[in-house]
Amino acid sequence: MQHDLTLGAGDVRLVPLELDHAADLLTLVDDALWSGMTSPTPRTVADMAAWVRLAHATPARSAFAVLGPDGQVRGSTSFYDVDPTFARCEVGHTFYGRAWWGGSTNPACKLALLRHAFEEWAMHRVALRGDARNSRTLAAMRRLGAVEEGVLRSHRVAADGSRGDTVYFSVLAPEWPTVRAGLEARLAGPA
């Protein structure tokens, strides 16, 4: 769905994902980066624009472009499966260009998203999930401080039709202060 949320933390701003972001996002992706996603790797601006349109068309999904301080597009991330009745949502559909792997971009995005979910929307549970074969993503979720809940076997269908397992993580409202402190410390850098 389309939305008007703008979030920020560290050196990133999360702005509503627009079709205008498609060309910049396309420059960030390749087969290896996109592996673990359930859609085919976008090859053209039209492919990426279709991915953006799908994000807009998906109920209970708020998709963002991730921008650096200079306005450069670093990637994309989303809230999805937002359910205020049960005070839960998920964070995902996330990818960043390799230039921002291992730096402050992911912790800043997660701080912005989780802060909004817990402190503005009063969520009780925020889930994250990843393809069991994507060790880099799973390590990032563990480093975030999310609790690993388990594996849903044969839960994902890749673009090539192969099936894979999904590893679920979550952060609950009582855990948020500790997770927030950890993210803020990571963004503050070495003491």
Automatic annotation (TrEMBL):
Keywords: Transferase. It comes from the Bacteria. One of its GO terms (molecular function) is acyltransferase activity, transferring groups other than amino-acyl groups. Residues 12-146 form the N-acetyltransferase domain. Gene3D superfamilies: 3.40.630.30. PANTHER family: BLL6696 PROTEIN, N-ACETYLTRANSFERASE DOMAIN-CONTAINING PROTEIN. This is GNAT family acetyltransferase. The lineage of its organism: Bacteria, Bacillati, Actinomycetota, Actinomycetes, Micrococcales.
